[in-house]
Amino acid sequence: MKNHVWRPLYIAIALVLLAVAARFIIVPSDFGVHERGYMYGWHRKSNEAEWKAVTVKYQTAKSCIPCHKEKYDDIKDSPHGKISCENCHGPRLGHPNDPKRLEINRARSLCLRCHTKLPYNGTLRGSMKGINPDTHYPQAECMMCHYPHDPRRQSHGQEVKR
Ligand code: HEC
Ligand code: HEC
Ligand code: HEC
Ligand code: HEC
Predict the structure, then answer these.
(1) 92 C-alpha vs ligand 2 centroid, how far in Å?
(2) Distance between CA atoms of 49 and 45, rounded to whole angstroms?
(3) Scanning 91, 97, 118, 144, which has the fewest C-beta atoms within 10 Å of its C-beta?
(4) How many of the other CB atoms lie within 10 Å of CB of 123?
């Protein structure tokens, strides 16, 4: 056969060899199928340890119980029971080591994002107990009167008078 037939074949073989060589150099040695088989198992073994070292940002109200049980007990059966602590105090991250304490936001806006009365009839947001921020004690912090961990109570313990 003539050269012009062989030459493209040499090039094809060279490309395949190049790809095989590149695979050996680039793919990490611990990449493979591992325990879970071909469908889900393809991963780098050392990646498991990397994920274990990630600090989980939000860790749920249950994670606060060992140190703030009083707050957890107050809130759990209250109308705010469904709201996670971290919704108001921010993500726990490495607390109490880093950060040492979580944020306490006393701004009216913290509460108003849920409690400004909005005319969305027939929706969950529209059915939430709402107030008009311009007329509901406009200069005062909500916490002056409402205890955030059980909003049925006043900040100093009594039921809110109606
Ligand atoms: C291992 C114990 C521990 C856990 C778990 C923990 N905390 Fe704390 N927390 C502390 C300590 C200690 C302080 C600092 C208290 C102080 O200095 O008055 C603190 C402070 C705070 C503060 C600030 C209090 C203040 O008066 O300034 C908030 C808010 C808070 N934690 C919320 C949370 C929330 C929400 C969670 C769960 C997501 C949580 N903590 C989990 C130990 C813990
Ligand atoms: C609806 C928002 C909201 C939720 C949900 C919430 N907090 Fe708070 N938290 C506040 C506010 C606002 C303050 C400040 C109260 C004040 O100044 O009277 C506060 C204060 C605190 C403090 C400071 C100490 C104290 O005696 O006031 C701690 C600790 C705390 N919260 C922990 C928690 C934990 C733990 C949870 C969940 C079990 C939680 N909070 C859920 C809004 C919230
Ligand atoms: C993430 C949304 C959310 C945030 C933030 C929030 N609340 Fe609520 N609040 C609720 C829900 C849900 C209820 C349950 C009743 C309802 O449908 O309004 C409630 C109920 C209440 C009630 C009525 C309690 C009763 O007697 O039934 C008061 C008062 C209240 N919250 C005050 C506050 C204050 C003060 C803050 C700020 C510290 C705050 N809320 C922040 C969602 C929220
Ligand atoms: C000076 C005290 C005071 C302050 C400050 C205050 N409230 Fe109230 N709030 C009350 C009283 C008293 C009631 C019950 C009587 C009523 O419905 O007006 C009430 C009722 C509510 C209700 C229930 C409404 C309903 O339909 O049952 C919500 C929600 C509420 N407040 C949210 C807030 C929020 C959010 C803030 C801050 C932006 C705030 N309040 C500031 C005294 C206060």
Answers:
(1) 13
(2) 8
(3) 97
(4) 10
**Which tens digit of pLDDT belongs to each residue from 92-144?**
999 999 999 999 999 999 999 999 999 999 999 999 999 999 999 999 999 99
Provide the token pair at 29.
């040695």
d(CA 161, CA 13): 86
**157 pLDDT above the threshold of 60:** no
> Mean of the pLDDT values across residues 134-161?
85
Token digits for 77? 């059966």
Cβ(75) – ligand 3 distance below 6 Å: no
Give me the pLDDT at residue 162, please.
47
Residue type for position 79 = P
Q: What angle do CA 68, 71, 76 make, to 5 degrees?
A: 120
State which amino acid sits at residue 125: R
- How many CA atoms are closer than 13 Å to the CA of 107, on its beta-carbon side? 8
Q: How far apart are CA 112 and CA 29, in angstroms?
A: 54
**Ligand 4 neighbours by CB, cut-off 6 Å:** 108, 111-112, 115, 129, 131, 133, 136-137, 140, 142, 144-146, 160-162
The amino acid sitting at 126 is G
